[in-house]
Amino acid sequence: MFAEDLIAKIKNARSIVVFTGAGVSAESGIPTFRDAQTGLWENFDATLLASPNGFCSDKALVWGWYEWRRMKVLHAQPNPAHRAIAELSNRVDHFALITQNVDDLHERSGVNDVIHLHGSLHQPRCFACARAYIFPGTMPDEPIEGRRLEPPRCQHCNGYIRPGVVWFGESLSEAAWERAQLAVRNCDLLFSIGTSAVVWPAAQLPIEAARSGATVIQVNPDKTALDQVADYNLHGQAGTILPLLLEAITQ
Ligand code: BV8
Ligand code: ZN
Which of 121, 170, 200, 217 has most ligand 1 atoms within 8 Å of CB, for mutation? Predict the structure, then answer.
């Protein structure tokens, strides 16, 4: 199934980075970023909804969209791809997981130190004073086509609560970006899993790994701009490929 030199490279790697996008959560039933535009969302530009201007121009529409996505994540379970990545993290001396995803499925599959480049659905904060907001313990019950929902207000300054994610046009957290760059510059091997590699500066990471001499392995059913950069392109679903890869390296 896999080239012998590929298996040897993974077995001999002492430092591995796994870089993931929405595709790794697809088999958990979480729509990938671009096809999250189902129902009500199909006539909205995602990059508009996921932006400060989008929120300021229609807070209830954007907050309702994020609550619908948060509900999807709360109902979802980690899939075999998440679990294979967690198992890999226990088999290598140095491991870093860098994700563009805002769900917590990597954490729930057992990876305890996840670098979230684009924040998290589970850490809302006040748009004005940045104080953390704690969600009520209840499960949101959002219809599939979504609905407008007024965002809650901050108890401290009465500002609007916003999703704890990095929107388009917002800069990434310095700390996360520094950690991610350090990891990719010092790894022997980087997996890029389930990302269309179109969002910057995240998309730069596998390129920096390759430039630093790492072996780059891409897992994606489709071709992406990374096909030119990767040493190995495993075209298929992560939930199928990764468990087979783990099996092959443990033989
Ligand atoms: C910034 C959180 C500047 C919100 C997200 C160059 C440099 C810097 C910036 C830019 C630049 N060029 C353009 C920009 C602007 C912009 C950008 O990149 N725009 C894009 C559209 C061109 N970047 C930004 O605005 C960034 N900010 O740089 O700030 C700055 C600097 C200083 C001071 C101020 C400002 C911030 C970008 C972060 C945006 N936030 N997420 C939310 O989630 O709602 S991005 C969001 O979209 C996701 O987090 C993710 O990163 C991205 C979606 O990408 P993917 O994860 O790849 O998902 P996608 O659906 O695209 O693809 C899924 C893939 O999986 C597919 O390939 C599919 O084939 C595959 N797949 C499907 N099923 C499976 C599978 N693979 C495996 N197995 C399966 N089963
Ligand atoms: Zn506040």
Answer: 200
Q: Whose CA is nearest to atom 61 of ligand 1?
A: 196
Say whether both 194 and 235 belong to one domain.
yes
Q: How far apart are CA 132 and CA 125, in angstroms?
A: 4
- Reported as a single tens digit per residue, the pLDDT across 185-198 is 999 999 999 999 99
Q: Is the same domain home to 96 and 216?
A: yes
Per the structure, the complete domain to which residue 54 belongs is given by 31-75+125-162
Q: CA nearest 151: which of 54, 48, 31, 16?
A: 54
| Cα–Cα distances in angstroms (integers) from residue 212 to residues 162, 185, 208, 228, in the given order | 37, 6, 6, 16
- Is residue 118 annotated as a catalytic residue, yes or no? yes
What pTM, to 2 d.p., does this model score?
0.96
Please give the tally of structural domains in the chain.
Answer: 2
